[in-house]
Amino acid sequence: MTITVGEIKYTNAFPFFYYVDRNKLLEKDCHFLIQTPATLNREMKAGRIQVGPISSFAYAENVDEFVLMPNLSVSANGPVGSIFLYTKRPLEELEGSRIALTTTSATSVHLLKILLKQYVGVNVTYDEMDPSFDEMMQDHDGCLLIGDEAIVTSWREEVETYRYDLGELWKEYTGTSMTFAVFAVRKDAIARQRAILEELYTAFVLSKEKNRKEQYASMIGHIQKGMGGTTAFWNHYFSNLVYDFHTQQQKGLLLFYEKAYEEGFLPKPIESIKIWGDVRTHHSSLM
């Protein structure tokens, strides 16, 4: 039976996938869909993807259909390094401004709205746009970029704007960490495809741990061939990211869900996070 694995196209999720043996997965009729978080969210909701990282906000929208793989996330306890609000004026002067939001995100767009309204105390209007800094800033007072587009824009020396890291703002205002992506599994897929899903989970964990043990050195070299950037930049970037999903990360995420419900972004409160508790790990043949 075919299984489709979602894969976020951005470098921040790459540690989970770098050492996974995709050829062996293909032999098991397991395929990857590499896309933006927003696309993966839609595909998993529709049942065309059975497992993979999605926006943490999308899990809250589909809490009855999904469970989360243990101890896998893309989180930050402070600066995340790839989710930036660029503005022409300081945060406190954004009242009545227009902000362009990337169409590739779910968590970050809602996080920004919560931060600006509840913590900064400004009211702004939003437009969704494809992630192009120059086009977004042409007729707007600011823009939100995520992932590799945000990273590449941060390298542009000619960009003269204020830049705010949403992970850093969340930490400053709430004192908690922020989880941007989680690894979700469709409940109906577990009933049909438990064995391969458990193999995948083990492969994700082993890839994460091997990258961390190597301090991401091999993976960074691979990334530099496509994106550039200095080794020092990438070392700093990955050192700020948290790839676990312990109590600290879950606490911060539940606070985000609470604020999202207060703003009417979620149809019901999320009081707990459902983890796939009986998933078994074993030696994986997928690395």
From TrEMBL:
<dbReference type="Pfam" id="PF02621">
    <property type="entry name" value="VitK2_biosynth"/>
</dbReference>
<keyword id="KW-0474">Menaquinone biosynthesis</keyword>
<comment type="function">
    <text>Catalyzes the dehydration of chorismate into 3-[(1-carboxyvinyl)oxy]benzoate, a step in the biosynthesis of menaquinone (MK, vitamin K2).</text>
</comment>
<comment type="pathway">
    <text>Quinol/quinone metabolism; menaquinone biosynthesis.</text>
</comment>
<keyword id="KW-0456">Lyase</keyword>
<dbReference type="InterPro" id="IPR003773">
    <property type="entry name" value="Menaquinone_biosynth"/>
</dbReference>
<dbReference type="InterPro" id="IPR030868">
    <property type="entry name" value="MqnA"/>
</dbReference>
<dbReference type="GO" id="GO:0016836">
    <property type="term" value="F:hydro-lyase activity"/>
</dbReference>
<protein>
    <recommendedName>
        <fullName>Chorismate dehydratase</fullName>
        <ecNumber>4.2.1.151</ecNumber>
    </recommendedName>
</protein>
<dbReference type="GO" id="GO:0009234">
    <property type="term" value="P:menaquinone biosynthetic process"/>
</dbReference>
<comment type="similarity">
    <text>Belongs to the MqnA/MqnD family. MqnA subfamily.</text>
</comment>
